[in-house]
Amino acid sequence: MLFFHPMDFLILIAFGLSLWAQFRVRGTFNKWEQVPASSGLTGAQAARVLLDRQGLYDVPVEPVHGRLTDHYDPLSRVVRLSEPVYYGSSISSLSVACHEVGHAIQHKVHYPMLVLRHRMFPVVSFASGVAPLLLIAGFLMQWANLIGLGIIFFSAAVAFQVVTLPVEFNASSRAKALMISEGFIRNEEERGVSKVLGAAALTYVAAALISLLELIKYILIFAGQSQSDDE
């Protein structure tokens, strides 16, 4: 019953979308990694310029191993760029580097959705670990209250992913606007920047969709069981 619910078909489609999104991110990054930016700046240099322009002199830019491992660490207040981005001077390198700086700027200006995301994190970290255990135990034991509790915890994880979407889209829009205003890219290069940032955003959309469909599935199963118990 749990594993062959009609909603599984939609979840399977969403999972396929997620795999395609990840494939597209890598493909798009690889394509525009071959196109040098007219400014000649590396990802590290571009990130440093933008951070300094925003008065974030105390936020360092550090290289990290791996590929597409770029992120902004809000606890240490560090922009960490994968080596291809840190040392590269391509459209892809600049796009990803400036996107991560976008998160640092969000942190500085207390962007509301980012603040909410940070506040949710401790709760979500606990909830996402507990939810699967509660749901599995609830379905095995046919205990509706346990399933309901699992759904509540799982809802917190889904809400976190939904809140992540505007955070990522906003960081990308900030990045592109700053790249243009600072002269990092020319008009003909804007298309490449949009492609790179858009492909990355799609992975977050797919992940949120999968979680949302799973939540709906659990709610429908829970509602069906509750109705059966009442009868």
UniProtKB/TrEMBL annotation:
It comes from the Bacteria. The chain crosses the membrane at residues 6-23, 120-140, 146-167, 196-221. The keyword RNA-binding does not apply. Keywords: Membrane, Transmembrane, Transmembrane helix. This is Peptidase. It comes from Effusibacillus lacus.
